[in-house]
From TrEMBL:
Keywords: ATP-binding, Kinase, Nucleotide-binding, Phosphoprotein, Transferase, Two-component regulatory system. Residues 67-293 form the Histidine kinase domain. The lineage of its organism: unclassified sequences, metagenomes, ecological metagenomes. This is Histidine kinase. It comes from hydrothermal vent metagenome. PANTHER family: PEROXIDE STRESS-ACTIVATED HISTIDINE KINASE MAK3, SENSOR HISTIDINE KINASE.
Length: 293
């Protein structure tokens, strides 16, 4: 039998006498006990929510650090290539330092590498700024020509791609400016280029590897298409490649955040679309952006 509950003020009523009078059909609880139980439960809920919020903050910081590490790999690799190339030429005696012409060639090469390294360092610094503002809703957008953003991304990756004998084919036909978060968008381009490069490195047997980049003006905005001949993505996993932490690479190489972050940048920050599909001999990423965000 279900008992009925009686809440009383225990300061005014003798609870023992009341229990003897009404018998076993009722549960008697004092008002004070109810208040204590409610207060205890509220405290538990507050502690649980604080713990949950703290866990979310820690997870977000961890994700942020992983994304920064992911984005730093390319500029750091390019810095390494620039310094190694200069050092190797000096060690092999390619420059004739006993001749004024050789000295000038050596000096010009060193200056060229310094400029490259400076650009790469600026890219590292920009990455910090980008992700510092990544989750902010009030970021500042600007009107840019998408082709210039693509060219900047190519400039950062060029030396590394050349060292892997990967050819970049550009077909950029965008003349109008559109509203974007420029630095964030460049990170998307870098992610896609890096993914293609990693694919070529993994497979190694692909002849004449290339990445074809095309920009097309549309009525609504601009489409950017990256296509490679790296053999494509397994049909069993292609639908998952934009999921957070999903990666086909070794843990030391990939975090599984690059394409997930790219999807967030394109679809949430820019209100656009990003799609992937296999081609005959590779994969194609299509980014659709509107004239205004």
């Amino acid at each position: 039998m279900n008992k009925k509950l009686i809440v009383i003020d225990s300061n005014k009523v003798d609870m023992l006498k009341l229990a003897n009078i009404i018998g076993d059909s009722y549960d008697i609880v004092s008002k004070h006990d109810i208040e204590m139980m409610v207060e205890q439960r509220v405290d538990e809920i507050i502690r649980d929510r604080e713990t949950e919020q703290e866990s979310k903050r820690v997870a977000q910081i961890g994700e942020l650090l992983s994304m920064i590490a992911h984005q730093w790999r390319q500029p750091l690799a390019s810095i390494s290539i620039a310094t190694m190339a200069g050092r190797t030429k000096l060690e092999l005696g390619i420059f004739d330092l006993d001749d004024s012409k050789g000295i000038d060639e050596c000096k010009n090469k060193i200056i060229e590498n310094y400029y490259k390294i400076d650009n790469f360092v600026q890219s590292l610094s920009q990455t910090i700024d980008n992700f510092r503002d990544f989750f902010k809703p009030n970021k500042e957008s600007k009107m840019v020509n998408i082709d210039l953003s693509i060219l900047r991304a190519i400039q950062i990756t060029e030396d590394s791609l050349i060292s892997d004998n990967i050819k970049i084919i550009k077909d950029l036909k965008c003349s109008k400016d559109i509203e974007v978060y420029d630095s964030e968008l460049m990170q998307v381009f870098l992610n896609i280029l890096k993914n293609s490069q990693d694919c070529f490195r993994d497979k190694k047997s692909i002849e004449n590897p290339y990445i074809y980049i095309e920009s097309i003006e549309t009525k609504q905005g601009v489409d950017i298409i990256f296509t490679d001949n790296g053999g494509g993505i397994d049909s069993d996993i292609i639908e998952y490649i934009f999921d957070p932490y999903f990666s086909t690479k070794l843990e030391s190489v990939g975090t599984g955040l690059g394409l997930s972050m790219s999807k967030t940048i394109i679809e949430k920050h820019h209100k656009g679309k990003i799609r992937v599909k296999n081609r005959e001999d590779g994969v194609s990423f299509t980014i659709e952006l509107k004239d205004t965000i």
